[in-house]
Amino acid sequence: MVYFDLGGVFFDYTVPINQFIRRNHLNRQKAWDSFFLIDPPAFLGKVNSQEHLNRFFKQIDFSKKDPFDFCSHFVSHFQVIPETHRLAEKLSQKVKLGLLTNIYKYNYERIRKYHKIPLLDYSPIILSCDFGLSKPDPKLYELAQKKITYKPEEVLYVDDYPENIKVAKTIGWNTILFDIQTLDQTISNIEKLALSC
Known about the structure:
Elements: E1 2-4, E2 11-12, H1 14-23, H2 28-37, H3 39-43, H4 49-59, H5 70-76, E3 79-80, H6 82-91, E4 97-101, H7 107-113, E5 125-127, H8 128-131, H9 138-146, E6 156-159, H10 162-170, E7 174-177, H11 183-196
Parallel strand pairs: 1-4, 1-6, 4-5, 6-7
Antiparallel strand pairs: 2-3
Helix pairs in contact: 6-11
């Protein structure tokens, strides 16, 4: 059984945000600090993605002058990581795939709509916003473990954040830190470990 994270594994979500920062001549560090500062309530499902974006605009003193749907625009411009897509499609023929991710309300539907993840039969799908918990809270991993019939040592978890990997190890899961800088080796390691768990 393999649990995949989404952002940073199946797609690069930073691309449209960096484009927005450049286009509007914003301070990159300040904009990203503001973006991450307001993430927690959105990950917990307390605000939806549009409300999150509005808070971000307020934080950086950006005036939105038109009814343009920034949420759909951002998601539609996430940059797919095709190697992970091909790997998931291949693995889906042999092992069960699930999702465990921090995400805003309604973004999962947008991500599927714009084909930013392979359209496979993931089960279970653990979205932080549905449970009021977000990684790296151990309770979310425990919930994910309870949703499956596999023993912890039969689970592989793939994420691009070291702190999320660290918590997954504490419940006995096998883990791989997804590293875009060593993509070929990372993909190879995921495949080998996924087929041996």
